[in-house]
Every structure is written in C-alpha cells, then in structure tokens.
Design brief:
Blueprint lengths: L1 H13 L3 H10 L27 H5 L27 E10 L3 E12 L2 E11 L5 H4 L9 E14 L2 E14 L2 E16 L3 E10 L14 E9 L7 E12 L5 E12 L2 E10 L10 E9 L2 E8 L8 E9 L1
Antiparallel strand pairs: 1-2, 1-14, 2-3, 3-4, 4-5, 5-6, 6-7, 7-8, 8-9, 9-10, 10-11, 11-12, 12-13, 13-14
C-alpha cells in the first residue's frame, strides 16, 4: 500500500490536474465566435457578383427573379427581359468605403420573339484595396473587378426562357484572374397582373479551372403580384422570393411597391424585408423609391448594412421605350 501511495504521489507531481486540461476543450466551440486580429475574409468570390441587379432591386432587399421588363434582369434572371416593349436602359452608382465605388449599366432590346440583353459592372477598390482583398495587396495598388453579361431570351406565349453567359475579371496590379459561368432562367408573365420567375445563376461554378475565383451557385424562385392595373394612376405590387445560396442557408424575401403616377409623373415607394440576412451579411430591411417622369424612372435605395459592412445610399435611372 505504501508503495502504491508513493507511486500515486509521483504521478500527480508529473501530471497536472485533469480539470485544467478539460477547460480548453470546453472552450473550443467558442473560438469561432471570438474576434481574431489575424483573421482574414474569403476574397475568392468577386464582389461584383454580390452587387444587386439594380437600385430598384436594392429597395426590395434583392428580390429580383420575378421582376420583369427592366434591363437589370440580365444580372438576375435573363428571362425577365421578355416583357420589354422595345428597348430598356438602366444604370446605377454606389459609393463604397475608402473612396471605392460601383457603377453598372444594362441594355435590353426586343427583336420579335427574342430579346437580347447586355450588362456591365465595375467595382473600383479605390486607394486602399487591402481593406477589401486582404493585407497581401499593397496600398495604392490598381485594383478593380469587371463583370460582363450577355443574354438571349426566347418568348412563346406567356412563357419565356433565357440564358446568359458571364465573364468576371479581377485585376490587382499586374495580376489578373478571370472567371466564366452561365445563368439560366424562366419567366411566366400573366400580362401586367402577375409574374413567376425561376433562375439558377453560376451553373457549374467557375468554368476556368486554373482560376482561383469562385462563382457560387444561387437558385431563386419568386412571384410578383399587381393589385391594380399599373397602366392606371395607382401602383400597388407585392413580391415574394426564396433564395438558395450554395453552401449557405436559404432565405425568404418579401417586399412591395406603392405609389401614384398621374399623367406620367409620380412617386413610387418600396420596401423589402428578409427574416435571415446572415448569408449576405446584410440588414434585414431595405427602403427605396422612384420619381417617375414619363418613360424615365429616377431610383434611390437605402440599406443600413450590406456586404461591405456600411450603410449605403444608391442611385440609378431606368428608361423604357
């Protein structure tokens, strides 16, 4: 017994008490929740892919797949171009932190049963690109991202099918990365009353295997409903959309527009809400409005927090002929 007691005391002197060893194990699940000074963000997904399709769509909290008749549909659901009467033009601008900025433009053109769409977007990271792309980027480096989209849509009756090809280019100094992918979409428009939209974006991810850029898939299903004839003075529309991002939880977005337009001049307000915006690191609610002057709409949208972690005021214009 004495020999056993001596052995026990010697072992206790060498080995620390078990409760001290267990404590770090219990804290391991909490480590991802702690802010780490050296933690870096994933910069392989281009920022231009996270920019909403248009300023109008920002006001609806990025519910875009069932919005038809706008040129900005090239960025969300190409089939949404099908209800353009003749031609549609669209542009938008957003200032970003650190003197960075985003500009975008889109064109939709109807040719009998077909529609052609073109879209372009530029994200200039400004004089401090390291705040967006990580500390490996030298201050003052020329850094920007470009997105180009081309769409073709065929419409038969109430149904429209569309496809888009896209090219993404990220330039940081002399280094260039490229990404290529495709989108496909469906739209069913019941005149001006309601519309159903479905789209899958970035099918197959980045088709350039040698590129480090990732183009994550996004699946959308949405529905819009006009409760009054949009050709009359009053405007009242609701929108519901479900989104399934790749490797992220699904989110539901609801929104609406309401306003008055008399003799081609009027004001329309809009709001969008999502119960779970964590997948986009964005605020749950967005707001916006439009000043309508004939065929021209001057758009504004506000979001308290977005992918860049700041509040944003965005401005745009739409022209439909």
């Amino acid at each position: 017994m004495k020999e056993r007691d001596v052995a026990t005391r010697e072992t206790s002197a060498v080995m620390p008490p078990r409760r001290h060893a267990v404590l770090p194990v219990l804290l391991l699940p909490l480590f991802p929740l702690l802010p780490l000074a050296a933690q870096t963000v994933d910069t392989t997904t281009p920022y231009v892919l996270h920019v909403p399709a248009s300023v109008r769509v920002v006001g609806l909290n990025e519910a875009a797949v069932a919005i038809v008749g706008d040129a900005g549909a090239v960025f969300a659901n190409p089939a949404g171009l099908a209800t353009i009467r003749h031609i549609a033009l669209e542009g938008g601008y957003r200032a970003a932190p650190g003197d960075a900025f985003v500009v975008s433009g889109a064109l939709g053109w109807r040719l009998r049963q077909f529609d052609i769409g073109l879209g372009g977007r530029l994200f200039d990271f400004g004089p401090d690109p390291a705040s967006y792309l990580g500390p490996s980027v030298a201050p003052g480096a020329d850094a920007r991202e470009l997105l180009g989209v081309g769409s073709l849509v065929y419409r038969f009756g109430l149904i429209a099918l569309g496809g888009s090809g896209k090219v993404v280019r990220r330039t940081v100094g002399d280094a260039v990365e490229r990404g290529v992918s495709v989108d496909a979409g469906l739209a069913i428009a019941f005149f001006d009353i309601m519309a159903l939209g479905f789209a899958v974006q970035n099918i197959g991810g980045n088709w350039r295997d040698a590129s480090s850029l990732t183009l994550p898939r996004l699946t959308r299903l949405g529905f819009t409903m006009n409760y009054v004839d949009p050709q009359e003075s009053f405007r009242l529309m609701s929108i519901l959309e479900a989104q399934w991002p790749e490797d992220a939880e699904a989110r539901i977005v609801v929104g609406g527009e309401a306003g008055v337009v008399v003799r081609g001049v009027g004001v329309i307000g809009r709001v969008g809400y999502s119960g779970d915006a964590a997948a986009l690191a964005a605020s749950n609610a967005t707001y916006g409005g439009s000043l309508r002057i004939g065929a021209l709409s001057l758009d504004y949208a506000y979001r308290a927090s977005d992918l860049l972690g700041r509040s944003s005021h965005q401005f745009g214009a739409r022209l439909t002929l």
